C-alpha cells in the first residue's frame, strides 16, 4: 500500500520494452534502418503521451523522470525569463524536486513566494492572484500532493496565470492515471509526469511544454528532443512510458472508483476502531488511492516497522531523521500540531490491492497501534488537544 512511492512495471509494458534492449537497439539519431525502428518507436510513444493529456506530440519532451521535469520547468523558465523578472510563485507543499529547485534559484538572486495552504492542503487561487507582481515570471502549483493526496484547483490557478500572461507549470506526477488531464481546459503551460508512478519503468518521464513557451535547456550536448534536451534517448524507457500512459489513462473512472471505494472503507474502519486518529488532506478533493491518517501517541517509523513485520508496506510523513522528530513540510503546512504530526501513516492503494488487503490492514493496524501506545512515553497523560477522537 505504497503506490505513491512507486509502482511495478505492468507485464504488458515490460513486454513492449524488451525488444528495444536487444533486437531494436539502434540509436534514433543514426541514419540506417535499425535506427529508424527506434526513431519510430520514440515518436509513437510521444504521440501516446500527448494524447493522454490533450497536447500535441511536438509539445512533449522526454526526460529522466519527474525530478528532471520539475527542475527543467522551474530553472529553465527562470533562466529564460530572467530579463523579464525574478519572482516565482509556488506552494509550501510541493514535492522537493520543485521546492529545492526554487531554493537553489533563491541563491541565484531569484525571489520565491511559497503560498500557504488551508487545513485540507488546498491553495487558495485568490492568494495566487494577490502574490503576482510585475516581476513574476512563473507560477508552479502541483496538481495533487503526494503525501496527503489533496487535489489543487489547477484550472482556476491556470486561468489567473494566463490572464497575467505568466507561464503556469504543474507537477502532475501523482495524477496521471488517477485524474483526467487536459492541458488546454486546465490552462497548463508546462506539466511534469513520471512513468514509474503509473505502472511504467523508473528513470523516464516527460515535460509538456506548450508551443511558444520559452524554457532554457538544462542539458547541453547533441541535438535530441528538438535541441532542447540533449542525450541519447532512453528508447526502452520511452516505449514503456508510452505503453504505460496509454493503459493508465484508458479507463480512469472505473479504476479510480474502485480504489476510492476501498480507500474509503479503509479510512472509515481505521477512524472508527482506533481512537485519537484523524484524516489528513481534503475529505473529497483527494487522489482516489490516497489515505493519510494521523495517530496520536505513536511515532510514524515505529508503525511502519511493525506493519512491515506483518507484510504491509506503507509510508510516513514523520520520519525521525537525524535524531530530530521533524514532521514533513506538508504536514506542517496544513497546521498539524507536532504531537499529532508525529504519528502519520500514508497508505496508497493501487492495482494489486484487493478487498482482502483492506480487511487485513483493518485487522492488523489496531493491534499494532495498541501495542505501540502501550509502550509509548507519548501516551502518558491526556491528548494535548483534549480530544478523545
Ligand atoms: C515521485 C514524484 C516526483 C519525482 O519523480 P521521479 O520520477 O521519482 O523523479 C515529483 N513530484 C511528485 C509529486 C512525485 O510524487
Automatic annotation (TrEMBL):
One of its GO terms (cellular component) is L-cysteine desulfurase complex. GO terms for biological process: [2Fe-2S] cluster assembly; amino acid metabolic process. Pfam families: Aminotran_5 (PF00266). The keyword Iron-sulfur applies. PROSITE patterns: AA_TRANSFER_CLASS_5. GO terms for molecular function: cysteine desulfurase activity; iron-sulfur cluster binding; metal ion binding; pyridoxal phosphate binding. Keywords: Cytoplasm, Iron, Iron-sulfur, Metal-binding, Pyridoxal phosphate, Transferase. The keyword Nucleotide-binding does not apply. Residues 2-360 form the Aminotransferase class V domain. Signal peptide: none annotated. It is an enzyme of class 2 (transferase). Its EC number is 2.8.1.7. Its cofactor is pyridoxal 5'-phosphate. Coiled coil: none annotated. Homodimer. HAMAP family: Cys_desulf_IscS. Belongs to the class-V pyridoxal-phosphate-dependent aminotransferase family. NifS/IscS subfamily. This is cysteine desulfurase. It comes from hydrocarbon metagenome. The lineage of its organism: unclassified sequences, metagenomes, ecological metagenomes.
